[in-house]
Amino acid sequence: PFDEGTAADTAAFTDSGDVAGYAEAAMRALVKAGVLQGTDGKLNPKGYATRAETAMIVYRLLDES
Which of 37, 26, 21, 28 is nearest to 6 (CA)? Predict the structure, then answer.
C-alpha cells in the first residue's frame, strides 16, 4: 500500500513522458516511495532492469513492509 504519487514525483526524470499511460500511477507511487530511483536522471521505462537493479527493487519493496 503505497501513497499515490503525482506528476511532480516523476517530473525530474528526463524520460518520464515515455512511461506508458497504464503504468503512470504505479510508476509515480513507486518513485514517491523511493522504490524506483532511476539512473542518470532517467527511469528507462522502455528498457530492461539488470539483476542488480531488480535486486534493489525487491529489497526496497520488502523493506517497506
Answer: 28
